[in-house]
Write a structure and sequence with these properties.
Order of helices and strands: HH
Number of strands: 0
Radius of gyration: 37 Å
Largest sheet: none
Structural class: mainly alpha
Strand content: under 5%
Distance between the termini: 122 Å
């Protein structure tokens, strides 16, 4: 009988022990009740998180509105200053 080579062919079937261990590992993972990746948490278990997120977004929106108003007012002031300088530059200096 010819000695077996230490390297197995990729086409040869895996040993039964390996298949058995793989099956037990897969069944064990399902038995733990691990949720599938990307599954959604039902809304009943996270209402507080939703409320806090909503309140946070409301405050953020109010802050953005205040910032936009402040920037708008500052832009208006700078435009008026630039227009005044341009108008004053057109008038001849009184002697």
């Amino acid at each position: 009988m010819a000695p077996r080579s230490p390297c197995r062919s990729l086409m040869s079937p895996p040993p039964p022990l390996l298949l058995l261990l793989l099956g037990v590992a897969l069944l064990g993972a399902q038995a733990h009740g691990e949720p599938a990746a990307g599954s959604a948490v039902p809304a009943q278990s996270r209402p507080c998180v939703d409320c806090h997120a909503f309140e946070f977004m409301q405050r953020a929106l109010q802050d953005l509105r205040k910032t936009a108003y402040s920037l708008d007012a500052r832009t208006e002031t700078l435009l008026l200053q630039a227009e005044r300088r341009a108008l004053c530059a057109c008038w001849p200096a009184a002697s």
